[in-house]
Fold this protein.
Amino acid sequence: MAKKRGNQSKRILVEAIGYIKTIQKTAPENPKIAEILEKAEKNLQDQLFDVMSREVTSVTKKT
């Protein structure tokens, strides 16, 4: 169950990062919007890194 939840979390985070990148390409040139989108993307990337780190740690502990 935890493995499925981890995979689902990764999928959702990757999709959200892709969505933000799409918005960045199509958004008008507004520095405030660009800054907000960059912060959101960084936050999601950090969350994805945390999920993947926990997954690697749990696999390492099992072996």
About this structure: DSSP finds two helices and no strands in the chain. Residues 31-62 form the longest helix (32 residues). Helices lie at 2-26, 31-62.
